[in-house]
Amino acid sequence: MEIKDAIKKAKENDQTAFNFLLDTFWNDVYAFQLKRTQNENDAEDITIQTFSKAFDKIDTYNEDYKFKTWLITISKNIHIDLVRKQNRTIRNTSKDDEDHYLEIIDDSPTPEDKIITEQNLAKLLRDIKKLKPHYQEVINLRYFQELSYKEISEDLNEPINNVKIKLLRAKKLLAAIITKS
Q1: How far apart, in whole angstroms, are the C-alpha atoms of residue 80 and residue 95?
Q2: Sign (positive or negative) of CA dihedral 24, 174, 76, 59
Q3: pLDDT digit string, tens, across residues 43-69
Q4: Measured between alpha carbons, how far is 16 from 106 in angstroms, rounded to an integer?
């Protein structure tokens, strides 16, 4: 799949296109944030937020610019906003923005889902323990406690789109661990 095709399909809510864009640009955005934050967890959180916001606002993407540049700009702005929030002594808690996240369609099982369900449970649990704790948590909530995205979002106090992207990333990392072993 070509980048332009993927963007066009993503604008039409094509899940495969979202996955392709996430896979293609994850390392670029993550590396950019790792350099800025010098912290793996912060870099990962900001990268998740970047894709969440980008997928939410994909219709506003201007094809005169490179998609990677657009993502990096979003990422940079998220980081700046987080630094500003940390520097404030009084926190403004506004949850209005959380209601405007794009619903990413996730009806059919992905190849990662199939690999995960085919595995022996004991081995699967050992493999899940190899993931970072926040990835273990979303896998546990979704597949073992069988919570909906909305319930996970409320449980973790995170926007639904962040939960979906974190879960997508967790499934990809878990599938990679499973295929290696």
Answers
A1: 19
A2: positive
A3: 988 999 999 899 989 999 988 889 999
A4: 10
